[in-house]
Amino acid sequence: MTEAAVGRTRLEITHWRLAAEALLDLDEFAAPEAWAGLEAYLQRGIRERLTAVASSVAHEAGALERRAADGQDPDGLRAGVLALRRRYLQVETIMDFYGDAIGSRTSPSLRALLRGLDVLAGDSMATALAPLGIAAPPALVYVDKGLGAAILRAGIRLWDEAHPSPAAAIKLTRHNLSYPTALLHETGHQVGHLTGWNTELAEGLHAVLAPRSAEAAELWGSWAGEIAADVHAFAQAGWAPVSALANVVDGPTPEVFRIRLGDPHPFAWLRVMFNVALCRSWYGHGPWDAVGEAWWHRHPPGSAPTHAREVARVSVEAMGELVDVCTRRPSRAFRGAPLSRVLDPRAVSPQALRDLERRAGDTLLTSEYLRRRHAVAILSVLSTRAVLDPGRAAEHRRALAAWLRTLGADAAPLQLVPPRVA
Question: What is the Cα–Cα distance from 223 to 198, expressed in whole angstroms?
Answer without folding.
Answer: 9
